[in-house]
Amino acid sequence: MNRKEFLSDCGKMGMAGVALSLFPWLESCSEKAKQEVQGEKVQIGIIGTGSRGLFHIKHLVQMPNVEVVALCDNYRPHLEDAAQYYPEAKLYDDYRRMLENKDVKGVIIATPLYLHAPMTIAAMEAGKAVFCEKSMAYTMDEALEVYNCRKELGGVLFIGQQRLFDPKYVKAMQMIHEGVIGEVVGVRNYWYRNNNWRREVPSPELERHINWRLYSEYSRGLMTELACHQLQNGSWAMGQLPKQVMGAGSLIHWDKEDERDVYDNVCAIFTYPNGVNMTFESIISNKHFGMGEQILGTKGTIDLVTAMHYTDEPAPKGSGMHQLIEQIESGVMSNSVFAGTSWAAESSALAPGMPIMQNVKVVSGESSVGAEADGSKELLEAFLHAVVTGKQPEKVLEESYYATQFALLADKAMHENAILTLDEKYKVPYTPF
Amino acid sequence: MKDSIITAQAKKRELWILLACFVVANITNWVAIIRFSAPWYEVFTQIGYVVVTTLVIYALMAILRIAFKVYKLITRK
Question: Of the candidates B28, B36, B50, which has its C-beta nearest A323's C-beta?
Fold first, then answer.
Protein backbone atom coordinates (compact mmCIF):
# COMPACT_ATOMS: atom_id res chain seq x y z
CA MET A 1 0.00 0.00 0.00
CA ASN A 2 1.49 3.36 -0.97
CA ARG A 3 0.85 6.73 0.59
CA LYS A 4 -1.99 7.44 -1.88
CA GLU A 5 -3.73 4.19 -0.99
CA PHE A 6 -3.20 4.82 2.70
CA LEU A 7 -4.76 8.26 2.38
CA SER A 8 -7.59 6.81 0.35
CA ASP A 9 -8.16 4.24 3.11
CA CYS A 10 -8.09 7.01 5.68
CA GLY A 11 -10.68 8.91 3.67
CA LYS A 12 -12.92 5.86 3.37
CA MET A 13 -12.68 5.33 7.09
CA GLY A 14 -13.75 8.88 7.74
CA MET A 15 -10.39 9.34 9.38
CA ALA A 16 -9.14 12.32 7.48
CA GLY A 17 -10.03 14.91 10.11
CA VAL A 18 -10.78 12.92 13.23
CA ALA A 19 -7.76 10.63 13.15
CA LEU A 20 -5.37 13.44 12.36
CA SER A 21 -6.56 15.40 15.36
CA LEU A 22 -6.41 12.30 17.59
CA PHE A 23 -3.15 10.94 16.23
CA PRO A 24 -1.06 13.93 15.09
CA TRP A 25 1.85 11.91 13.72
CA LEU A 26 -0.37 10.95 10.76
CA GLU A 27 -0.10 14.55 9.58
CA SER A 28 2.83 13.46 7.43
CA CYS A 29 0.40 11.23 5.48
CA SER A 30 -1.88 14.12 4.57
CA GLU A 31 -2.25 15.58 1.08
CA LYS A 32 -0.79 18.86 2.30
CA ALA A 33 2.30 17.10 3.61
CA LYS A 34 2.66 15.25 0.34
CA GLN A 35 2.70 18.50 -1.60
CA GLU A 36 5.24 19.91 0.83
CA VAL A 37 7.89 17.43 -0.32
CA GLN A 38 6.87 17.04 -3.95
CA GLY A 39 9.85 16.70 -6.26
CA GLU A 40 12.33 16.30 -3.39
CA LYS A 41 14.74 13.38 -3.45
CA VAL A 42 16.00 12.01 -0.13
CA GLN A 43 19.53 10.62 0.18
CA ILE A 44 19.79 8.00 2.84
CA GLY A 45 22.18 5.41 4.16
CA ILE A 46 21.38 2.06 5.72
CA ILE A 47 23.32 0.63 8.64
CA GLY A 48 22.65 -3.08 8.97
CA THR A 49 21.64 -4.85 5.78
CA GLY A 50 20.59 -8.18 7.27
CA SER A 51 17.06 -9.52 7.02
CA ARG A 52 15.30 -6.45 8.45
CA GLY A 53 17.51 -4.00 6.58
CA LEU A 54 16.74 -5.85 3.35
CA PHE A 55 13.04 -5.75 4.20
CA HIS A 56 13.25 -1.95 4.27
CA ILE A 57 15.28 -1.89 1.05
CA LYS A 58 12.53 -3.83 -0.71
CA HIS A 59 10.13 -1.03 0.24
CA LEU A 60 12.59 1.73 -0.62
CA VAL A 61 13.16 0.50 -4.18
CA GLN A 62 9.45 1.09 -4.81
CA MET A 63 9.71 4.73 -3.73
CA PRO A 64 10.78 7.18 -6.43
CA ASN A 65 11.64 9.97 -3.97
CA VAL A 66 14.49 8.13 -2.27
CA GLU A 67 18.07 7.42 -3.21
CA VAL A 68 20.12 5.03 -1.11
CA VAL A 69 23.63 6.44 -1.35
CA ALA A 70 25.39 4.40 1.34
CA LEU A 71 25.16 0.89 2.75
CA CYS A 72 26.95 -0.41 5.82
CA ASP A 73 27.33 -3.84 7.36
CA ASN A 74 30.26 -5.64 8.92
CA TYR A 75 29.05 -8.95 7.51
CA ARG A 76 30.07 -8.97 3.84
CA PRO A 77 27.42 -11.37 2.44
CA HIS A 78 24.62 -9.15 3.79
CA LEU A 79 26.27 -6.05 2.38
CA GLU A 80 26.60 -7.64 -1.05
CA ASP A 81 22.95 -8.73 -1.01
CA ALA A 82 21.88 -5.14 -0.36
CA ALA A 83 24.30 -3.73 -2.95
CA GLN A 84 22.46 -5.65 -5.66
CA TYR A 85 19.52 -3.28 -5.17
CA TYR A 86 21.69 -0.15 -5.15
CA PRO A 87 24.87 -0.83 -7.12
CA GLU A 88 25.76 2.90 -7.08
CA ALA A 89 25.73 3.12 -3.27
CA LYS A 90 29.02 3.45 -1.38
CA LEU A 91 29.74 0.41 0.78
CA TYR A 92 31.05 0.60 4.34
CA ASP A 93 31.94 -1.87 7.05
CA ASP A 94 32.21 0.81 9.77
CA TYR A 95 29.16 2.95 10.51
CA ARG A 96 31.28 5.84 11.82
CA ARG A 97 32.87 6.23 8.41
CA MET A 98 29.48 6.14 6.77
CA LEU A 99 28.25 8.91 9.06
CA GLU A 100 31.07 11.11 7.77
CA ASN A 101 29.49 10.97 4.30
CA LYS A 102 27.92 14.40 3.76
CA ASP A 103 25.59 13.09 1.04
CA VAL A 104 23.74 11.01 3.60
CA LYS A 105 20.86 13.05 5.03
CA GLY A 106 19.10 10.28 6.91
CA VAL A 107 20.06 6.84 8.18
CA ILE A 108 18.09 3.66 8.76
CA ILE A 109 19.55 1.53 11.54
CA ALA A 110 18.60 -2.15 11.45
CA THR A 111 21.30 -3.71 13.59
CA PRO A 112 21.27 -5.93 16.71
CA LEU A 113 19.63 -4.32 19.74
CA TYR A 114 22.80 -3.63 21.74
CA LEU A 115 24.02 -1.35 18.92
CA HIS A 116 20.86 0.75 18.59
CA ALA A 117 21.67 3.41 21.17
CA PRO A 118 25.36 4.06 20.32
CA MET A 119 24.60 4.14 16.60
CA THR A 120 21.54 6.37 16.99
CA ILE A 121 23.42 8.84 19.15
CA ALA A 122 26.40 8.88 16.78
CA ALA A 123 24.10 9.48 13.80
CA MET A 124 22.21 12.30 15.53
CA GLU A 125 25.51 13.91 16.54
CA ALA A 126 26.58 13.69 12.90
CA GLY A 127 23.46 15.71 12.03
CA LYS A 128 21.56 12.89 10.35
CA ALA A 129 17.86 12.19 10.62
CA VAL A 130 17.53 8.72 12.16
CA PHE A 131 15.15 5.82 11.77
CA CYS A 132 16.19 3.10 14.19
CA GLU A 133 14.53 -0.27 14.50
CA LYS A 134 12.79 -1.11 17.76
CA SER A 135 13.50 -1.49 20.56
CA MET A 136 15.05 1.88 21.10
CA ALA A 137 17.89 0.62 23.28
CA TYR A 138 19.37 -2.35 25.10
CA THR A 139 19.14 -0.75 28.56
CA MET A 140 16.79 1.72 30.24
CA ASP A 141 19.65 4.18 30.76
CA GLU A 142 20.57 4.02 27.09
CA ALA A 143 16.97 4.66 26.06
CA LEU A 144 16.91 7.77 28.22
CA GLU A 145 20.25 8.83 26.80
CA VAL A 146 18.87 8.53 23.26
CA TYR A 147 15.74 10.48 24.21
CA ASN A 148 17.78 13.26 25.84
CA CYS A 149 20.19 13.38 22.92
CA ARG A 150 17.32 13.99 20.49
CA LYS A 151 15.88 16.61 22.87
CA GLU A 152 19.20 18.41 23.05
CA LEU A 153 20.13 18.25 19.36
CA GLY A 154 16.67 18.46 17.83
CA GLY A 155 16.39 16.73 14.47
CA VAL A 156 14.37 13.73 13.46
CA LEU A 157 14.25 10.41 15.29
CA PHE A 158 11.87 7.59 14.39
CA ILE A 159 11.78 4.18 16.04
CA GLY A 160 10.37 1.18 14.16
CA GLN A 161 6.97 1.03 15.89
CA GLN A 162 5.03 0.52 12.67
CA ARG A 163 1.63 -0.12 14.25
CA LEU A 164 1.28 3.64 14.68
CA PHE A 165 1.01 3.85 10.88
CA ASP A 166 -1.02 0.72 10.21
CA PRO A 167 -4.48 1.82 8.93
CA LYS A 168 -6.33 -0.98 10.75
CA TYR A 169 -4.75 -0.02 14.08
CA VAL A 170 -5.46 3.66 13.44
CA LYS A 171 -9.12 2.90 12.65
CA ALA A 172 -9.48 0.60 15.67
CA MET A 173 -7.93 3.14 18.03
CA GLN A 174 -10.16 5.86 16.62
CA MET A 175 -13.21 3.68 17.39
CA ILE A 176 -11.90 2.97 20.90
CA HIS A 177 -11.35 6.67 21.57
CA GLU A 178 -14.88 7.38 20.32
CA GLY A 179 -16.21 4.95 22.92
CA VAL A 180 -17.49 2.26 20.55
CA ILE A 181 -16.44 -0.51 22.96
CA GLY A 182 -17.24 1.53 26.06
CA GLU A 183 -14.73 1.91 28.85
CA VAL A 184 -11.49 -0.02 28.28
CA VAL A 185 -11.25 -2.71 30.95
CA GLY A 186 -8.48 -4.94 29.67
CA VAL A 187 -5.76 -5.33 27.05
CA ARG A 188 -4.58 -8.76 25.94
CA ASN A 189 -1.48 -9.31 23.83
CA TYR A 190 0.08 -12.61 22.86
CA TRP A 191 2.57 -13.81 20.32
CA TYR A 192 3.04 -17.52 19.81
CA ARG A 193 5.35 -19.21 17.35
CA ASN A 194 6.72 -22.66 17.01
CA ASN A 195 10.20 -22.25 15.66
CA ASN A 196 13.65 -22.00 17.14
CA TRP A 197 14.08 -18.33 16.10
CA ARG A 198 17.44 -19.18 14.60
CA ARG A 199 19.10 -18.06 11.37
CA GLU A 200 21.40 -20.32 9.41
CA VAL A 201 25.03 -19.88 10.38
CA PRO A 202 27.68 -20.56 7.72
CA SER A 203 30.42 -21.19 10.29
CA PRO A 204 30.30 -21.64 14.10
CA GLU A 205 32.29 -18.47 14.95
CA LEU A 206 29.43 -16.43 13.42
CA GLU A 207 26.80 -17.95 15.70
CA ARG A 208 26.47 -14.97 18.06
CA HIS A 209 26.95 -12.46 15.25
CA ILE A 210 23.98 -13.84 13.30
CA ASN A 211 21.81 -15.25 16.08
CA TRP A 212 22.27 -12.25 18.37
CA ARG A 213 18.56 -12.36 19.36
CA LEU A 214 19.20 -15.52 21.37
CA TYR A 215 21.90 -14.12 23.64
CA SER A 216 21.35 -11.70 26.51
CA GLU A 217 24.68 -10.06 25.75
CA TYR A 218 23.07 -8.53 22.62
CA SER A 219 19.31 -8.67 23.07
CA ARG A 220 16.57 -8.96 25.71
CA GLY A 221 14.83 -11.66 23.70
CA LEU A 222 11.06 -11.81 23.38
CA MET A 223 10.42 -8.63 25.37
CA THR A 224 12.49 -6.33 23.17
CA GLU A 225 11.98 -8.15 19.87
CA LEU A 226 8.23 -8.86 20.07
CA ALA A 227 6.54 -7.38 23.15
CA CYS A 228 7.80 -3.90 22.38
CA HIS A 229 5.36 -3.70 19.44
CA GLN A 230 2.35 -4.84 21.40
CA LEU A 231 2.94 -2.93 24.65
CA GLN A 232 2.10 0.23 22.77
CA ASN A 233 -1.52 -0.89 22.47
CA GLY A 234 -2.39 -0.19 26.10
CA SER A 235 -1.15 3.38 26.19
CA TRP A 236 -2.58 4.07 22.74
CA ALA A 237 -6.01 2.78 23.77
CA MET A 238 -6.13 4.31 27.24
CA GLY A 239 -3.88 7.36 26.98
CA GLN A 240 -1.97 6.47 30.10
CA LEU A 241 1.13 4.56 31.11
CA PRO A 242 1.36 1.46 33.32
CA LYS A 243 2.09 2.11 36.98
CA GLN A 244 3.65 -1.29 37.65
CA VAL A 245 4.71 -4.51 36.00
CA MET A 246 5.24 -8.08 37.12
CA GLY A 247 6.21 -11.09 35.10
CA ALA A 248 7.74 -14.51 34.79
CA GLY A 249 10.06 -15.90 32.18
CA SER A 250 11.85 -19.16 31.62
CA LEU A 251 13.72 -21.31 29.17
CA ILE A 252 11.58 -24.36 28.73
CA HIS A 253 12.31 -25.86 25.36
CA TRP A 254 14.82 -24.46 22.88
CA ASP A 255 17.75 -24.36 25.30
CA LYS A 256 17.90 -28.14 24.92
CA GLU A 257 19.06 -27.62 21.35
CA ASP A 258 21.47 -24.70 21.59
CA GLU A 259 23.34 -22.37 23.95
CA ARG A 260 20.80 -19.55 24.03
CA ASP A 261 20.19 -17.70 27.28
CA VAL A 262 17.17 -15.49 26.61
CA TYR A 263 13.75 -16.74 27.71
CA ASP A 264 11.66 -18.72 25.25
CA ASN A 265 8.56 -18.39 27.40
CA VAL A 266 7.44 -15.12 28.97
CA CYS A 267 4.34 -13.75 30.63
CA ALA A 268 3.94 -10.21 31.96
CA ILE A 269 1.16 -8.17 33.54
CA PHE A 270 1.16 -4.38 33.30
CA THR A 271 -1.20 -2.55 35.65
CA TYR A 272 -2.45 0.94 34.80
CA PRO A 273 -3.27 3.67 37.33
CA ASN A 274 -7.02 3.01 36.83
CA GLY A 275 -6.53 -0.66 37.76
CA VAL A 276 -6.81 -2.04 34.23
CA ASN A 277 -4.36 -4.81 33.40
CA MET A 278 -2.57 -5.40 30.13
CA THR A 279 -1.05 -8.83 29.56
CA PHE A 280 1.67 -10.00 27.25
CA GLU A 281 2.41 -13.66 26.73
CA SER A 282 4.82 -15.29 24.32
CA ILE A 283 5.79 -18.91 23.80
CA ILE A 284 7.91 -19.98 20.85
CA SER A 285 7.29 -23.71 21.08
CA ASN A 286 3.57 -23.64 20.24
CA LYS A 287 1.91 -21.57 17.55
CA HIS A 288 -1.76 -22.52 17.83
CA PHE A 289 -3.02 -19.05 18.76
CA GLY A 290 -0.49 -17.10 16.65
CA MET A 291 -0.45 -13.37 17.30
CA GLY A 292 -3.29 -11.56 19.04
CA GLU A 293 -3.93 -8.07 20.33
CA GLN A 294 -7.31 -7.36 21.86
CA ILE A 295 -8.76 -4.31 23.53
CA LEU A 296 -11.59 -5.27 25.87
CA GLY A 297 -14.30 -2.73 26.67
CA THR A 298 -17.52 -2.71 28.67
CA LYS A 299 -19.54 -2.79 25.44
CA GLY A 300 -17.37 -4.98 23.26
CA THR A 301 -13.96 -6.06 22.07
CA ILE A 302 -11.75 -5.00 19.21
CA ASP A 303 -9.23 -7.45 17.85
CA LEU A 304 -6.48 -5.29 16.42
CA VAL A 305 -4.76 -8.04 14.44
CA THR A 306 -7.83 -9.20 12.56
CA ALA A 307 -9.50 -5.75 12.61
CA MET A 308 -12.72 -7.23 13.97
CA HIS A 309 -15.24 -5.71 16.35
CA TYR A 310 -17.22 -8.00 18.68
CA THR A 311 -20.08 -6.48 20.59
CA ASP A 312 -21.18 -7.54 24.06
CA GLU A 313 -24.58 -5.93 23.51
CA PRO A 314 -27.36 -8.45 22.90
CA ALA A 315 -27.91 -9.21 19.23
CA PRO A 316 -31.02 -7.53 17.82
CA LYS A 317 -33.98 -9.91 17.98
CA GLY A 318 -36.01 -10.75 14.91
CA SER A 319 -39.64 -9.78 14.42
CA GLY A 320 -42.36 -11.16 16.71
CA MET A 321 -43.47 -13.62 14.04
CA HIS A 322 -39.87 -14.73 13.51
CA GLN A 323 -39.36 -15.29 17.23
CA LEU A 324 -42.62 -17.25 17.45
CA ILE A 325 -41.56 -19.52 14.59
CA GLU A 326 -38.12 -20.01 16.20
CA GLN A 327 -39.76 -20.90 19.50
CA ILE A 328 -42.10 -23.44 17.88
CA GLU A 329 -39.18 -24.81 15.88
CA SER A 330 -36.92 -25.24 18.91
CA GLY A 331 -39.83 -26.84 20.81
CA VAL A 332 -40.41 -29.36 18.03
CA MET A 333 -36.80 -30.06 17.16
CA SER A 334 -35.16 -30.12 20.60
CA ASN A 335 -34.50 -33.33 22.48
CA SER A 336 -36.05 -34.00 25.83
CA VAL A 337 -33.51 -33.25 28.50
CA PHE A 338 -33.55 -34.97 31.83
CA ALA A 339 -30.20 -33.67 33.01
CA GLY A 340 -27.63 -31.32 31.54
CA THR A 341 -25.28 -28.46 32.25
CA SER A 342 -26.52 -26.20 34.97
CA TRP A 343 -24.74 -23.15 33.54
CA ALA A 344 -23.52 -21.77 30.26
CA ALA A 345 -20.51 -19.49 29.90
CA GLU A 346 -21.44 -15.87 29.29
CA SER A 347 -19.37 -15.69 26.14
CA SER A 348 -19.59 -13.61 23.03
CA ALA A 349 -16.39 -15.14 21.68
CA LEU A 350 -18.33 -17.26 19.20
CA ALA A 351 -20.22 -14.26 17.84
CA PRO A 352 -19.24 -13.62 14.23
CA GLY A 353 -18.13 -10.00 14.77
CA MET A 354 -17.97 -7.16 12.29
CA PRO A 355 -14.90 -6.12 10.28
CA ILE A 356 -13.93 -2.57 11.14
CA MET A 357 -12.68 -1.96 7.59
CA GLN A 358 -12.53 -3.75 4.26
CA ASN A 359 -9.58 -5.48 2.54
CA VAL A 360 -7.62 -6.04 5.72
CA LYS A 361 -4.50 -8.11 5.38
CA VAL A 362 -4.13 -10.14 8.56
CA VAL A 363 -0.55 -10.59 9.73
CA SER A 364 0.15 -13.97 11.33
CA GLY A 365 3.17 -12.81 13.31
CA GLU A 366 5.11 -15.86 12.21
CA SER A 367 7.74 -14.00 10.21
CA SER A 368 10.66 -12.71 12.24
CA VAL A 369 11.66 -10.31 9.46
CA GLY A 370 8.46 -8.35 8.92
CA ALA A 371 5.15 -8.68 7.16
CA GLU A 372 3.59 -6.88 4.24
CA ALA A 373 0.89 -4.31 5.00
CA ASP A 374 1.84 -4.00 8.68
CA GLY A 375 2.50 -0.25 8.57
CA SER A 376 6.27 -0.57 7.96
CA LYS A 377 6.11 1.06 4.54
CA GLU A 378 3.95 3.94 5.77
CA LEU A 379 6.32 4.47 8.68
CA LEU A 380 9.25 4.58 6.26
CA GLU A 381 7.42 7.11 4.06
CA ALA A 382 6.68 9.28 7.08
CA PHE A 383 10.38 9.15 7.99
CA LEU A 384 11.43 10.20 4.47
CA HIS A 385 8.97 13.08 4.66
CA ALA A 386 10.51 14.12 7.98
CA VAL A 387 14.03 13.95 6.53
CA VAL A 388 13.02 16.56 3.96
CA THR A 389 11.06 18.83 6.28
CA GLY A 390 13.25 18.33 9.35
CA LYS A 391 10.07 18.16 11.45
CA GLN A 392 9.71 15.53 14.16
CA PRO A 393 6.09 14.27 14.24
CA GLU A 394 4.38 14.56 17.60
CA LYS A 395 4.26 11.56 19.94
CA VAL A 396 6.13 9.09 17.72
CA LEU A 397 9.22 9.26 19.91
CA GLU A 398 7.37 9.26 23.25
CA GLU A 399 5.28 6.22 22.31
CA SER A 400 8.39 4.36 21.17
CA TYR A 401 10.37 5.43 24.21
CA TYR A 402 7.81 4.11 26.68
CA ALA A 403 7.26 0.90 24.70
CA THR A 404 10.98 0.25 25.07
CA GLN A 405 11.13 1.26 28.73
CA PHE A 406 8.22 -1.00 29.70
CA ALA A 407 9.56 -3.93 27.68
CA LEU A 408 12.88 -3.56 29.50
CA LEU A 409 11.18 -3.05 32.87
CA ALA A 410 9.15 -6.24 32.38
CA ASP A 411 12.32 -8.13 31.48
CA LYS A 412 13.89 -6.83 34.68
CA ALA A 413 10.81 -7.83 36.70
CA MET A 414 11.10 -11.37 35.32
CA HIS A 415 14.76 -11.64 36.20
CA GLU A 416 14.30 -10.16 39.68
CA ASN A 417 11.00 -11.94 40.30
CA ALA A 418 9.56 -8.66 41.52
CA ILE A 419 6.78 -6.15 40.97
CA LEU A 420 8.45 -3.05 39.55
CA THR A 421 7.51 0.54 38.84
CA LEU A 422 9.25 2.85 36.41
CA ASP A 423 11.85 4.93 38.22
CA GLU A 424 11.14 8.68 38.20
CA LYS A 425 14.40 9.37 36.39
CA TYR A 426 13.11 7.51 33.32
CA LYS A 427 9.88 9.48 33.09
CA VAL A 428 9.67 11.92 30.19
CA PRO A 429 6.73 14.19 29.28
CA TYR A 430 3.82 12.16 28.00
CA THR A 431 0.68 13.71 26.55
CA PRO A 432 -2.38 11.50 26.72
CA PHE A 433 -4.41 11.14 23.54
CA MET B 1 -59.80 -38.11 -20.62
CA LYS B 2 -62.88 -36.28 -19.43
CA ASP B 3 -63.09 -32.51 -18.77
CA SER B 4 -63.14 -31.54 -15.08
CA ILE B 5 -65.67 -28.99 -14.00
CA ILE B 6 -65.04 -26.77 -11.00
CA THR B 7 -68.33 -25.34 -9.94
CA ALA B 8 -68.80 -21.73 -8.86
CA GLN B 9 -69.82 -23.05 -5.44
CA ALA B 10 -66.53 -24.98 -5.09
CA LYS B 11 -64.52 -21.91 -6.09
CA LYS B 12 -66.41 -19.78 -3.59
CA ARG B 13 -65.84 -22.38 -0.84
CA GLU B 14 -62.06 -22.49 -1.52
CA LEU B 15 -61.85 -18.70 -1.47
CA TRP B 16 -63.65 -18.61 1.88
CA ILE B 17 -61.26 -21.21 3.29
CA LEU B 18 -58.24 -19.23 1.98
CA LEU B 19 -59.64 -16.06 3.57
CA ALA B 20 -60.13 -17.90 6.86
CA CYS B 21 -56.50 -19.09 6.68
CA PHE B 22 -55.36 -15.51 6.05
CA VAL B 23 -57.32 -14.32 9.08
CA VAL B 24 -55.82 -17.07 11.25
CA ALA B 25 -52.29 -16.18 10.03
CA ASN B 26 -52.92 -12.51 10.87
CA ILE B 27 -54.19 -13.42 14.32
CA THR B 28 -51.02 -15.48 14.80
CA ASN B 29 -48.94 -12.39 13.87
CA TRP B 30 -50.87 -10.25 16.40
CA VAL B 31 -50.33 -12.89 19.09
CA ALA B 32 -46.61 -12.92 18.29
CA ILE B 33 -46.45 -9.11 18.46
CA ILE B 34 -48.13 -9.09 21.88
CA ARG B 35 -46.18 -12.04 23.22
CA PHE B 36 -42.74 -10.76 22.19
CA SER B 37 -43.48 -7.06 22.72
CA ALA B 38 -42.72 -6.33 19.09
CA PRO B 39 -43.77 -3.06 17.45
CA TRP B 40 -47.27 -2.93 15.94
CA TYR B 41 -46.02 -1.86 12.53
CA GLU B 42 -45.05 -5.52 12.10
CA VAL B 43 -48.73 -6.07 11.21
CA PHE B 44 -47.72 -4.64 7.83
CA THR B 45 -43.97 -5.31 7.63
CA GLN B 46 -44.38 -9.02 8.35
CA ILE B 47 -47.00 -9.49 5.65
CA GLY B 48 -44.62 -11.84 3.83
CA TYR B 49 -44.57 -14.19 6.83
CA VAL B 50 -48.37 -13.88 7.07
CA VAL B 51 -48.86 -14.85 3.40
CA VAL B 52 -46.52 -17.84 3.74
CA THR B 53 -48.30 -18.90 6.94
CA THR B 54 -51.65 -18.56 5.12
CA LEU B 55 -50.47 -20.91 2.38
CA VAL B 56 -49.03 -23.37 4.89
CA ILE B 57 -52.34 -23.49 6.83
CA TYR B 58 -54.31 -23.82 3.57
CA ALA B 59 -52.03 -26.68 2.45
CA LEU B 60 -52.41 -28.44 5.80
CA MET B 61 -56.20 -28.05 5.58
CA ALA B 62 -56.18 -29.42 2.02
CA ILE B 63 -54.28 -32.51 3.19
CA LEU B 64 -56.78 -33.02 6.03
CA ARG B 65 -59.78 -32.56 3.71
CA ILE B 66 -58.38 -35.00 1.13
CA ALA B 67 -57.63 -37.52 3.88
CA PHE B 68 -61.21 -37.10 5.21
CA LYS B 69 -62.70 -37.62 1.72
CA VAL B 70 -60.58 -40.74 1.11
CA TYR B 71 -61.70 -42.07 4.50
CA LYS B 72 -65.36 -41.41 3.63
CA LEU B 73 -64.97 -43.17 0.26
CA ILE B 74 -63.46 -46.22 1.92
CA THR B 75 -66.09 -46.42 4.68
CA ARG B 76 -69.03 -45.97 2.17
CA LYS B 77 -67.97 -49.14 0.38
Answer: B36
